[in-house]
Amino acid sequence: MNLKELADSLNLSPTTVSRALNGYPEVREETRARVLAAAKAANYAPNSRARRLATGRAMTIGHVIPLTGRAEMVNPIFADFLIGAGEVYAREGYDLLLSMVTDGDTEGAFRQLAANGSVDGVMVQAPVADDPRIALLKELDLPFLVHGRTGDPTGYSWLDIANIRAFRRATDFLLDLGHRRIALLNGQEAFDFAQRRRRGFEEALAARGLAPLPHLMADDAMTESFGYLTASAMLDGPEPPTAFLASSVIIAIGIRRAASERGLRLGRDLSVICHDDELSYLNNDVGGPAFTATRSSIRAAGRRCAEILIELIRHPERPPIQELWDTDLTVGQSTGPCPTR
Amino acid sequence: MNLKELADSLNLSPTTVSRALNGYPEVREETRARVLAAAKAANYAPNSRARRLATGRAMTIGHVIPLTGRAEMVNPIFADFLIGAGEVYAREGYDLLLSMVTDGDTEGAFRQLAANGSVDGVMVQAPVADDPRIALLKELDLPFLVHGRTGDPTGYSWLDIANIRAFRRATDFLLDLGHRRIALLNGQEAFDFAQRRRRGFEEALAARGLAPLPHLMADDAMTESFGYLTASAMLDGPEPPTAFLASSVIIAIGIRRAASERGLRLGRDLSVICHDDELSYLNNDVGGPAFTATRSSIRAAGRRCAEILIELIRHPERPPIQELWDTDLTVGQSTGPCPTR
DNA sequence: GGGCATTTCCAAAGCGCTTTGGGTTGCGGA
DNA sequence: TCCGCAACCCAAAGCGCTTTGGAAATGCCC
Predict the structure, then answer these.
(1) CB atoms within 10 A of CB A157
(2) Per-residue pLDDT reduced to its tens digit, A153-175
(3) Could you give the CA distance from residue B170 to residue B98 in angstroms, rounded to a whole number?
(4) Using CB atoms, which residue from A43, A52, A79 is nearest to B79?
(5) How confident is the model over B95-104, as pLDDT tens digits?
(6) What pLDDT is attached to residue B288?
């Protein structure tokens, strides 16, 4: 069933049927009702391919996921962000095009999307320092929103959490408990967010005249095994940390495993703070928060990012939209005073 | 830059340029080379919307994710499956359309996709008993592949792992170690896979004349907190289990937390086996496998599912394709003989 | 060199929708 | 009675591509 057939069956022109379905005012309400009823009865839905061609809009937003080498984007936060964004897209009538890039040529993928017009805008996640994607997308004149930020953050739209502040506060919290040998298990420092977190950590130390301890700092893909292996090595090494600051709950879970193997109880023998993205399957709140954590819902971020991106698509001349979200600090059972020995 | 402009600049007809770009034989190689060079120089890419309309193919595959109430699909395995499938789609020139359904009307979403022709086929994940999606998709005549299976599995294409066999084997493994009070922490038993796993568990017990213990069986969304809370309650209750069988590493991590809080060491005081989907950020293999586990890569499943679905789309008259994958049993450090007391 | 099969290219007709630029019709006011 | 204005509807022209059905040019054979 297509528009013409539907129109014929109603003794109307395709024009009128199209207008009736799309809510234009030039059609009598009675006619519109007739059309809507017939469309429903015939289970008619306008062909999206034809509609996209005719309107020139793709009604689609692209997410490009690089799959190079390490876990990188293939981490669990990716799913929750996607879900949040997808909810909004569905509500607003946009499709979500997910594009995996295996050859490392993310920029080529963007060029392709722009050239063949299959999306109206794209989401940029996990920017690295002076991320080339930003310059490229400006050049391509394709609406985009960055989750995170980098370089000079004035010329484009982004949404980010206050990473420096969060990690500075978390570090202060540990320092206030008397900890001095604090380890930082960070995400890959190629990413801007990890650099900021490190900076927050170092600033807090510096404010008390302390220097970071190189042997207690590591960064890598945020996996459980990274947390486990790194924490194990640090705990078994000279000058072991009395507290850990981790960039993700996943890492913290690895740390917990290392601690538990060594008979160390969290909150008493060892303290752990992490950043909690509030992943749906790693709820940190059951029976009181397990980990003391800085928190910010990645799913809510996905939702808001989608809203902003759609706004940018609808109003291309709009000045950039920028949002900085503060994080919460929730005190859980994984932190306590530095054990004196 | 569109086809006509490109053709004009080459003094060729759009027909010829289109054929040159699409590899048809009716064009001289020299001409083809000229066209390709010009297209590249002009950074030309055919408009995908127009192409889709003209060919009648969407070159898009849909994944529909229900977001009703509980975590359900919003679990971490979803991401890895998606990534695997996405790799193949990208290689084969298909787009991946991700559709979130928030109002619970998954079937309506499928109808919509079929009616407006925005996908050539869909992936069905996590089927429940006699899943209505299967009948619907047959009726809509939309190619689809089920990851998992349910009901009468002869009339459609699917890929599944041997859940019964896996859980039977895992249970046997625990029984051989002398365990008798074995707890099952399953995924939601509305899902077919969870029902099969339970069946494998019960069959293994029955084969030794044992009955399952109702107070040691639970099923829910596979979150860390489900594992933690349920294991805590069971361990603190009467007749605590000496071993756990869990449907996911995530659940097992929760069990480990409960055990560790009670000073129980895995592999010595308490045994845990889980099913491991080989999630990229929860590698179970670092420094020897942490958990004894039945294993099957969900990402590899995603890849293979995508391949099969594309095959089905290309050859609609093909008889159903069905694949049953066996799982590996990897012995890790989380299991040991039943402690005698 | 003419006939015939290839090779190489093109004009034009869709694909199914939206949208522009009118045409009718009906009604109130002069 | 006629005009003007809404209200309602339609024909036709795109959107940018693919593909059918030739036509012109070329090559080959006898």
Answers:
(1) 22
(2) 999 999 999 999 999 999 999 99
(3) 35
(4) A79
(5) 999 999 988 8
(6) 64
Are B155 and B302 within one domain?
yes
Clarify whether residues B285 and B204 are in a common domain. yes
Q: Total structural domains in chain A? A: 3
Contact assessment for residue A242 and residue A271, using Cβ atoms and an 8 Å cutoff: yes
Q: Tell me, what CATH number does B76's domain have?
A: 3.40.50.2300
Tell me which DSSP letter residue A54 carries.
H
Residues β-bridged to residue B128:
B191
In this complex, do A224 and B281 lie within 8 Å of one another by their Cβ atoms?
yes
Convert the pLDDT of each residue in B163-209 to its tens digit: 999 999 999 999 999 999 999 999 999 999 999 999 999 999 999 99
Strand-by-strand arrangement of the A60-66 sheet: A322-325, A158-161, A144-147, A121-125, A60-66, A95-101, B95-101, B60-66, B121-125, B144-147, B158-161, B322-325
The verdict on a CB contact (< 8 Å) between B250 and A78 is no
Mean residue pLDDT across chain A: 94
In one-letter notation, the amino acid at residue B206 is A
Separation of alpha carbons B31 and B49, rounded Å: 26
Site from B49, B107, B248 to mutate, A interface, most A CB atoms within 10 angstroms = B49
Dist CA B184 CA B245 (whole Å): 5
Same domain, B232 and B213: yes
Beta partners for residue A145, in sequence order: A123
pLDDT band per the 50, 70, 90 thresholds, residue A208: very high
In a domain, B109, yes or no: yes
Q: How far apart are the C-alpha atoms of B330 and B293, rounded to whole Å? A: 5
Q: Which chain A residues contact residue B223 at CB under 8 A?
A: 280-283
Amino acid at B122: V
**CA distance, residue A211 to nearest chain B CA (Å):** 31
Please, what is the angle between helix B14-21 and helix B3-10, to 10°?
Answer: 100
Parallel/antiparallel/unpaired status of strands B95-101 and A95-101: antiparallel
Of A46, A225, A281, the CB nearest to B224: A281
Strand C contact with A2 (CB < 7 A) = yes
For the segment B108-121, the average pLDDT, to the nearest whole number, is 96
Question: Tens of pLDDT along A32-72?
Answer: 999 999 999 999 999 999 999 999 999 999 999 988 766 55
The boundaries of the domain holding residue B277 are 163-297
- Encoded tokens for B220: 């829910």
Nearest to B123 by CA among B98, B104, B101: B98
